Amino acid sequence: MFNSIFENDALWNRRQVLQAAGVLAAGAGFVHTAQAAAAGEPPAKKATALMRIGILSGTIRRPTVEATLDAIQAHGLSCVQLSLDCAGLSALPDHIAPELADRIRQAAAARGIEIAAVQGTFNMSHPDEAERRAGLRRLRVLASACQRLGTSYVHLCTGTRDRGNMWRRHADNDSSEAWRDMAGCVREATEIARQTNVILAFEPEVNNVVDSAKKARRLLDEIGSPHLKVTMDAANIFHAGELARMREVLDEAFALVGKDIVLAHAKDLSRDGDAGHEAAGRGRLDYDRYLSLLHASGFRGPLLLHGLGESQVPGCVAFLREKLARVAST
Questions:
Q1: pTM (global) more than 0.90
Q2: CATH code for the domain of 208
């Protein structure tokens, strides 16, 4: 439905996009489930009454993966976005021993923790093809280990033209060459995901080439694969000058990509643009609106904390539980 937005803007104005959000919110859960079953898509997240609160493993530093999972369990969390650096590897390693993957899966299962996703981010927009190809090679290693690790989801971002820091915006991010290279890399990554039966969940991020929900929609439509979905982090989609229009920006984002969200992040922002990292509930993000939109879109997956210190985890968990309970009661 949204393909024409980018081909003929005259066909859709902002009000029409926002009106479409209501349609998506009402039917996204049922329609997406039915389409997935008909198309033989990889398994979707299991629906529950509320979103499950989890955390990015890098928030909690312990000497072993078992100790890290013990700490996550002690905080009352039931899921994790796992970076393999907690198991003594790089986040995107050249090799993952089968016995290590089995050990991680078994350790998580013994503690009742779901590995909601693994961290697979690399700079998919790097101007050097050799860098992109190295990332794709390591992504295949990670995706091939996902079954043993006990997950079907890989989180990533699209990156930037900056050669030294994929989280730093570059003036060339909006160029046609940047889009071409990024989209080509994502297409190859999605083929890896198809071959290994995983889902890639990319995150729109203001410093990356895909820096908005509108560009996320464009990428989804261009690739056209059930193996490519979205991670939503509402703190990462506000460009300079947009914070005053928070409700409008959030509503438009969910109108465009709400039906494709499979992972959600929970942090906060103190400003627009490069928002920095604030603990959830400590900044300016309208969490009532954010969580209501997630819920209305049919999302019942993991809500993953990051951008916080471990000492802030109990307060953030309590904050999210109170907000989610309010959403569920409306």
A1: no
A2: 3.20.20.150
